[in-house]
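Section 5.1 Outputs to date
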Amino acid sequence: MASSLIVSGLDWKQAIIAIAIGNLIIGIAITANGTTGALLHIPFPVLARSSFGFWLSYFAVVSRCVLACFWFGIQTWTGGLCMAVMLEAIWPSFAKIPNRLPVSAHATTAQMTAYFCLCCSWICIASDTSSLSRPS
């Protein structure tokens, strides 16, 4: 984000200040959005009914679900790219895996392998339920 601000003409100090101000504004908006539900223990679908009415609240809930699906996909793909960088740092030969995917896939075999490794790491974390047990 800062690099695109620097390319557009800001120096590094102005870019950092712009990012800090933007994050502050978004942080205030997100906190204000979640405060009612957190304080009163009201879930989002019930809270949406007070603003949108009974039938239009379904639109708010469905649009939030669709947005969450897209956001999850973007974040997991970014995580897969980060996993590819980590695997290349650990095993430099990982970068030399021949690409078997077509160009239209816009991904390489190494990137898809790293994505699969990331998903496998989640399974390992999710299957460890020992930390979720309640003390007796």
